[in-house]
Amino acid sequence: MAPAIDCSIRYFEQRKFRALQLRNKWPKYEDLSFIDCLNEEMNKNNVRAAVLISEIDGGFHQHDELLAIAEKKPERFIAVPLVNPTRHNEQKNLRHYIESGIRAIKLSSLGCHPNPFQPVLLKRITSFPLWEMCRAYKLTLFVRPTVYDSHLLPHLVSAFPDVNVVVESSMVSLSPRKVTTDEWGRPRLNLPLPTMDRYTLWGLSDFPNVRVILASQYSFSKCEWPYVDLINWHGLENFIALFGAERLMWGSDFPFTWINPGYEKCLRTYSVRDFDISPDDLAYIRYKTAQKLLIKKPAASVLKSRKT
Q1: By CB atoms within 10 Å of each CB, which of 8, 139, 237, 251 scores lowest?
Q2: Burial (CB count <10 Å: 0-12, 13-18, 19+), residue 222
């Protein structure tokens, strides 16, 4: 099978990465950077490209290290900086990202609506101006809805049919008050599954501009890899039936999965017999969907053409 594309790397700046290595029993290679460690795992497991999703809640200059990595090896690494719709002057930050050549961003939240008891008015959703910029500059938008804002996503996706939207973590929403951390530093979602907002999110399958990253099973499964307890309600038969394999992508969530279950097992999750996925569908999940969506001309060229 062709080399895979990993669509969910949790990127930490080097200082934070070192602290997490010490705290969470991750392998300690004193002379290797985050990218060195990731490269080693990718090379061992025939993964040719990775999407670096920022865990840095800061402005443009806090992402210098991430942007430099993607600029140096644009076919190997795709930078996805974190953008906060509630931060002052974040539209200016986004323009800097576009000028630097990024292809995608992640929203730290979908924002909020001033009155949850009234009909949703799109322009009053705090992230609305950022969605407008994503449409103008053809950026892919990564989102991780929470139980507090997931109801806004169908409105936004419907209003921006030409914005490619990627829903992370197997479409399971966060509930910040219910999240704990296990001994390997992995987030644990202590909620009964399926959560009520799952039915809202399932409706997104009707929108062809929505893709899903199949990842983070360790955070909501009640058993160890290959997470067979999720097959009945979360299994790929359901996702493929709803979205089609051509709208699904694989992600490892490295470095959270570095020790448990390990990078190689993450890659094999959907090829184990229990999931019963056809080779053609598995090829889309492993690399074809991401290849078509993310490995393309940088957004910077779009900005330059607009200026001329």
Answers
A1: 237
A2: exposed
Looking at the DSSP bridge assignments, the partners of residue 189 are: 179
DSSP lists the bridge partners of residue 10 as 53
Q: In the chain, what's the furthest Cα-to-Cα distance?
A: 55
Q: Judging by beta carbons within 10 Å of its beta carbon (0-12, 13-18, 19+), is residue 184 exposed, middle or buried?
A: middle
Is 0.85 surpassed by the pTM of this model? yes
Residue-wise pLDDT tens digits, 231-279: 776 666 778 888 999 999 999 999 999 999 999 999 998 887 677 788 9
Backbone angles phi, psi at 166, to 5 degrees: -115, 115
Is the pLDDT score of 299 beyond 60? no
Omega before residue 261 within 30° of 0, cis: yes
Q: How far from chain centre, in Å, is Cα 261? A: 19
Q: Taking the CB of residue 117, how many other CB atoms lie within 10 A of it?
A: 5
pLDDT tens digits, residue range 183-212? 999 999 877 766 666 667 778 999 999 999
Tokens of 61: 């200059």
Count of Cβ atoms closer than 10 Å to residue 16 Cβ: 13
Amino acid letter for position 302 = V
Q: Is 27 left (phi over 0), alpha (psi -120 to 50) or beta?
A: beta
33, 52 contact by CB (below 8 A): no
Q: Which residue has the tokens 């009640």?
A: 222
Other beta carbons less than 10 A from residue 179's beta carbon: 13
User: Angle at the Cα of 256 (from 54 to 108), degrees rounded to 5?
Assistant: 30
Q: Per the structure block, which two tokens stand in for 227? A: 């997470």
